[in-house]
Amino acid sequence: MSRSADPLDTFLLRVLETLINERSVSKAAIRLNQSQPAISAVLKRLREMFNDPLLVRERGQMIPTERALELVTSARVILNETARMLAEPSNYVAATSQREFRIGAADFMIATFLNEVVKRLRSEAPLTRLTVIPLRGDLDYEAALANGDLDLVIGNWPNPPPQLHLGVLLEDDVVCLMGRDNRLVREMTQSDYLAAAHIVPLSYSNAHRGVVETHLSSMRLSRNAVITLPFFGMAPYLLSQTDLVFTTSRHFAEYHAKFLPLAIVEPPVPFPKMRFYQLWHEGTHRSRAHEWLRQLFTDASRHAQQKIGISKPTKLPPVKQHVVPR
Q1: Which domain covers residue 246, as residue numbers?
Q2: Do residues 110 and 259 both lie within one domain?
Q3: Which pLDDT score is estimated for 92?
Q4: Which stretches of the chain score pLDDT less than 50?
């Protein structure tokens, strides 16, 4: 049966259960780390699907209908059975495992981060293989996570797919990286920034534009992109003897500024923080091997932050993302 022929999935059931438990769209959105409009849209879809209002307002409260109470009982059974079916045996042993993990990522991961991942991997799971797959336009990473071709995806798009699980690795400031002799090091207005010659990473796809482009578009601003590169790692090496500007995360900028004659300048545009995260599918959520893998990336991120002096992530308002409690 095709996905389109099956109108119900575990995400919808999880939203239904949370709505009935919380009896509030806003509280359900907070619990699921979703936006309120997103949960309202799901509630509308559920109402149409079951031909029932499910939640009705009465004396200032949202009260579940009789049909909703029947449905949530069934939903809980299905969710529990799904979790049981997907759970792996608890005897996963990293030290002796010979499996391969495949990670989808762009090259915005700095060397110290990946170095820590590999160091821990070689120490704790020496027989395990790791393959990093570049994210590109012809790769459907959601399908790859669903069918097992990828185990994790490392991303930083403002609006990751809500049906995937998400774990934050790092929240970081947006800064401008440029050569030390660039005149904009001394002073840079918003007009200067927009008119400057920019290096811009090639977007993974139209649906996954980066934080910088998304925010500028929301302000109806555009920058002067004169160099477009397929790899983030190329950009720092083009800055030192040119007038080019590269807008990136602070940890990426600080790492490269240690080795190259570069300056880090605060942008005159009030960008939101960049949020880097790992994404995974419901099918591997309770896998002991994948839990170990996700913890490996979480620990490596913390270690890399400490090594390059990045402060601990702050609590941000939820963006459109889905974090399901264990």
Answers
A1: 174-265
A2: no
A3: 84
A4: 1-5, 311-326
Q: Could you give the CA distance from residue 228 to residue 273 in angstroms, rounded to a whole number? A: 22
CATH code at position 163: 3.40.190.10
- Residue 166 sits in the same domain as residue 201: no
Count the domains in the chain.
Answer: 3
User: Helix, strand or coil for residue 130?
Assistant: strand
Residues 167, 216 within the same domain: no
What is the separation of C-alpha 300 from the centre of its chain, rounded to a whole number of angstroms?
A: 16
Find the CATH number of the domain harbouring 67: 1.10.10.10
Q: Report the pLDDT value the prediction gives residue 143, as an integer from 0 to 100.
A: 82
Q: What angle do CA 260, 213, 32 make, to 5 degrees?
A: 110
Residues facing residue 153 across a β-bridge: 104, 279
Q: Are strands 100-105 and 152-155 parallel, antiparallel or unpaired?
A: parallel
In-domain check, residue 321: no
Per-residue pLDDT, 88: 56
CA-wise closest residue to 13 among 294, 319, 282: 282
pLDDT at 123: 94
pLDDT tens digits, one per residue of 28-65: 888 777 888 889 999 999 999 999 999 998 877 889 99
- Looking at residue 313, its pLDDT comes to 34
Note whether residue 38 is domain-resident: yes
Burial environment of residue 66 by CB neighbours within 10 A (0 to 12, 13 to 18, 19 or more) = exposed
Of 206, 188, 204, give the one whose Cα is nearest residue 245.
188
Query: What is the per-residue pLDDT for 292?
Result: 94
240: in domain: yes
Please tell me the predicted confidence (pLDDT) of residue 96.
92
* Alpha helical stretches, state H, 167-249: 190-195, 211-218
Assigned domain for 192 exists: yes
Q: Give residue 84's pLDDT.
A: 65
